[in-house]
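Collaborator request, handled under Task 6.
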Amino acid sequence: MRRKAQIIWEEISVYVYISIGLIIYGTGVTLFMIPYQITSGGVTGISSLIFYATGTIEVQVSYLTINAFLLIAAIKILGWKFCLKTIYGVLFLTFYMWAIQRLVEDPVTGALPRLVKDQTFMAVVLGAVLEGIGLSVCFSHNGSTGGTDIIAAIVNKYRDISMGQGIMLCDCIIISSSYFVYEHSYGSDVAWQMIVFGFTTFIIAGVTLDYALNRTKQAVEFKIFSRNYARIADAISNAGFGVTVLDGNGWYTHSERKVLICICSRRYSSIIMRAIKRVDPYAFVSVANVESVYGEGFSIMKTKLKDQKPILVFATNNSHKLEEVRTIIGEKFEIRSLEDINCKVDLPETSDTLEGNALQKAQYVKKYYGFDCFADDTGLECVALGGEPGVLTARYAGGAGHDDEANIKKLLANLEDKADRSAQFRTSIALIYKGQNYSFEGIVKGKIAKEKSGEAGFGYDPVFVPEGYTETFAQLGGEIKNTISHRARAVSQLCDFLVHNEE
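Structure tokens returned to the collaborator:
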């Protein structure tokens, strides 16, 4: 119950911050842009142009109308979670701009006041800074003011282009097109001046936005030199931060030294410093600003490689399984094995279910190697043996490693006096993809033959006869097996899912 309340409070606080950002942004547009007829870009810029040209259609009206169409793109590409915040942002900003205009406008003429008199450039600077700060507060909490923010967010999702740069690219055309409105109303000389003010606005707003966003995301790198490096490393790790120990050599003392490296967000740097000081207040510490950090807990590398396929790790080194899966999935994904990512440890399989074992292996790879991955666990379940071998299928005969011959020998011995030889192969696949866990299952029913037949395949293939056939998997060969097997059916579900959810 406490956790649920915490989640609700966190979500409410997000909307509070988005509202604050929208108020700052709306204030900049309404009090500093519109009264001086400056085009600031985006949908608010388009709406402003419509207002300047007509004199009757208020900014918030056309702003709401245009965003109603753009939200369709947000739903499809950025997801409902982003869209809900975008809908909230559009509605809140529409209402706020209407309310603040009603509050400050001249009751007779309806004109908005010029807070800095005839200082148009000062209005440009103040309005642009407020816009940039407001947008940064919104974006840092996954909010949006709609319009070209949606386009910029989409570009930022797939390309390593900052939000400020994305908005600048979108706004160039909008601001340039404002020339025709100004030229019609004020003449060519004034039109060019207003164009300059417009570009000045969106440059200042973009720079402010990037600075404010990067300031909150800026990282620092600690290099720590201490003979108490082990205790410092433990203290930093216990505080929840990663730390790496490097071998070094002190050239002055000609002695081996250990160097600790830790990278964290700037706002957490004081925690690291306190952890160091508690252990060794005389440690030598170097702290440097880091321009960009990519990896776990930081930014994601969005640089696109030509012809780069999405990478998925199949948590196995079984060449037979790997070949089967690569054949079924085809060319849409690059399937890597544990060996391909230099994972040489035995993955944990301590669960008493196939599903649990598969998830354990996938979680281990994701946690320590970072790749999206999937893992499988397969069990042969015989009715007469109460579901055995089950999760012990690969280690049924005991001993070290997986001994296919010993496993088959034990299985046939245990079934020797059993009339019911029906069985099923069941494969459970656990997939970790884009931060979410998914599971798939494939089952093929059949029976256990009384003796081995066939040379193809692996494991229990020489004694398993699938339903509808008279030959074992080992006799049928890989071409048929890969279309009807338990693994083929589970991987087929996996493949369908990946194709429909591929970026």
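The cover message to the collaborator said: "The radius of gyration is 32 Å. The chain has a mean pLDDT of 83. Please let us know whether this matches your experimental observations."
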